[in-house]
């Protein structure tokens, strides 16, 4: 029997980029639009199968350039239902590489819902450059990697 695990899914989670104001439905600032383009550039040699976002403009506009470059439709998810989103992603065999846009509080909750022991309650409000990569393996294990972009 082999000890080699096979990757089943790779999930990329990001908090929305810099926002224009503190209003609830604020869009991205100029810096935020620049960061969204940087995110798209990061995935230029990858294939993203599916893209999820909350319906707030700042989150959608963070992942939109990547979705457009990948010719992927964006599916909205309920901000508060990270357990439902995690179940959907894990159980759907059509999802292999997935980009998920979220917020400072629900990205850590989603990481935990995916089975990762992640001891961060919220991403600091002044951090917009974290890319969390969750790799799910065929033996039921998972790994979290954090990068800056």
Attribute tags:
six-stranded mixed beta sheet, 149 residues, 25% strand, alpha/beta, globular
What is the β-strand count?
Answer: 6
Biggest sheet architecture: 6 strands, mixed
The helix/strand order is: EHEHEHEHEE
Strand content: 15-25%
Based on secondary structure, the structural category is: alpha/beta
Distance between the termini: 39 Å
Strand order of the largest sheet: 3-2-4-1-5-6
- Total helices: the number is 4
Tell me the radius of gyration. Answer: 15 Å
Low-pLDDT windows of residues: none
Shape: globular
Share in helix: 25-40%
Average pLDDT, to the nearest integer? 94
Description:
By secondary structure, the protein is of the alpha/beta class. The chain has helices at residues 30-42, 57-70, 82-91, 106-113, and strands at residues 7-15, 50-53, 74-76, 97-102, 130-137, 142-148. The chain has a six-stranded mixed β-sheet with strand order 3-2-4-1-5-6. α2 links the parallel β2 (50-53) and β3. The radius of gyration is 15 Å and the shape is globular. The mean pLDDT is 94.
Write the layout of secondary structure elements.
Elements: E1 7-15, H1 30-42, E2 50-53, H2 57-70, E3 74-76, H3 82-91, E4 97-102, H4 106-113, E5 130-137, E6 142-148
Parallel strand pairs: 1-4, 2-3, 2-4
Antiparallel strand pairs: 1-5, 5-6
């Amino acid at each position: 029997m082999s000890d080699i695990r096979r990757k089943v899914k790779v999930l990329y989670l990001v908090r929305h980029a810099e926002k224009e104001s503190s209003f609830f439905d604020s869009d991205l600032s100029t810096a935020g639009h620049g960061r969204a383009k940087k995110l798209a550039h990061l995935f230029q040699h990858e294939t993203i199968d599916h893209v999820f976002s909350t319906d707030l403009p700042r989150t959608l506009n963070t992942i939109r350039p990547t979705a457009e470059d990948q010719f992927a439709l964006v599916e909205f998810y309920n901000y508060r239902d990270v357990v439902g989103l995690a179940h959907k992603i894990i159980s759907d065999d059509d999802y292999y590489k997935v980009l998920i846009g979220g917020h400072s509080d629900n990205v850590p909750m989603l990481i935990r819902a995916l089975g990762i022991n992640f001891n961060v309650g919220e991403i600091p409000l002044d951090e917009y450059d974290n890319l969390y990569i969750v790799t799910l393996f065929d033996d039921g294990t998972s790994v979290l990697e954090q990068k800056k972009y």
